[in-house]
Amino acid sequence: MKNVPIIGRFKDGDVIVTEGVISNNAYIVLFGEVRISKKIDDKQVIIGTLKKGDVFGEMGLISKTQRSASVIAIGEVNIGIIDKEIFASMLNTIPNDLRCVIDALVERLKVTTRKLANIGIQLEKTRKTINSFSLQTIEGEE
What we know:
6-stranded antiparallel β-sheet, flat, 142 residues, 32% strand
């Protein structure tokens, strides 16, 4: 998206978007990288990393929903805004049948994000179990 104004400059570790807060706009990374994380069972699970040109918060443009994940700056980051009102006026030109498909995709994306976070938790538990078993095996050989 061209001509997206910078709305903020963030330093390493700054929280740009907080999970659970009601969505207002979407954002585009103009410079730097951000980390996406989701809270599952009181643990923060890293979902992914976004870089220049990537968009986040897009589900909030389409449906009134809480943020499904947090977004944290990695190093210096410049973020632009994609205005919800302008996007909504463009979305209103789409036929209702197509709007239903878009809404369904947003819901499926939310479910997929939750499942991905749960897989991350299980992977971490499995990794700890394997590491523990490896240590026990090494100690038993000494």
